[in-house]
Amino acid sequence: MSEAQSAGQNTAGQNVVIxxxxxAVAERYARLHAARGARLVLAGRxxxxxxxxxxxxxxxxxxSAQVAVLDLATPEAGFDAAxxxxxxxxxxxxxxxxxxxxxxxxxxxxxxxxxxxxxQLTTNMASACAWLTVAANHMERQGRGTLxxxxxxxxxxxxxxxxxxxxxxxGLALFAQGMAHRFAGTNVKVLTxxxxxxxxxxxDGLAKGGPLWATPEKVAADIDKAAAxxxxxxxxxxxxxxxxxxxxNLPGVVFNRMKI
Length: 260
Ligand SMILES: NC(=O)c1ccc[n+]([C@@H]2O[C@H](COP(=O)([O-])OP(=O)(O)OC[C@H]3O[C@@H](n4cnc5c(N)ncnc54)[C@H](OP(=O)(O)O)[C@@H]3O)[C@@H](O)[C@H]2O)c1
Hints:
Blueprint: H1 3-6, E1 15-19, H2 24-34, E2 39-44, H3 47-59, E3 64-69, H4 79-88, E4 96-99, H5 107-112, H6 114-142, E5 145-150, H7 163-182, E6 188-195, E7 197-198, E8 213-214, H8 216-229, E9 233-236, H9 240-249, H10 252-255
Helix pairs in contact: 2-8, 6-7
This protein binds NADP nicotinamide-adenine-dinucleotide phosphate.
């Protein structure tokens, strides 16, 4: 019996809504479900890329792959109406929602301009919490489902180099943790994902390589396994749990001397 089956979940042919389906991690995650014959809704703002990903996922075995073109940070129709339309694309039964979109954002620009700071917080936190809310209420009504929010290890402790991004991801993680508490003991599961460095377009401005860097395939596979087990928190790769435990517990007098 597979891990997923022993956790009481049948992963074959699930209905999966992916918010931020053009993300490299989300695309690799979608491929895992496509190979099992899932029905997918792919939401994002780049119509042409979404259509190309949908075609690829169908070729990989997806029973269906429909696109929803919208700005996920500020959906024109509003979160409730946009959610209802996406759920309708899979007949209103939604097994899994992955909230994957995000922006790294420019820390210095956010420090200099409150409109930019607010934009970064809205994209990475407020809008993500709104999607989790409409999706959670849907799953509460249907009595089951799995919500997955991609936060970041950056949310575990504020650092001078990226505390606007970190605050948004930390806030998102806390929100998802509270939601997991709300649904404890039910068949609605909420998984918070805290990746470290991943080699994706988001990090193209950084020097890459070395043992701390993961591939999007690795992160997607870790998410898939953790969700099937009904886990509530995932550090990926696993060693980030230890690294962040040390960083969170460094005394301020030491931490404040570090230029990180
Ligand atoms: N890469 C890392 O090192 C790392 C580490 C920790 C956590 N994460 C998180 O992992 C998640 C996936 O990121 P990734 O690494 O796969 O990077 P990615 O390939 O650059 O994906 C980010 C995606 O977010 C989409 N997006 C941003 N704002 C959007 C909006 N307003 N509406 C619709 N789509 C929007 C982008 O779409 P467009 O192409 O249309 O802009 C892009 O497809 C993100 O939440 C990120 O914060 C990444």
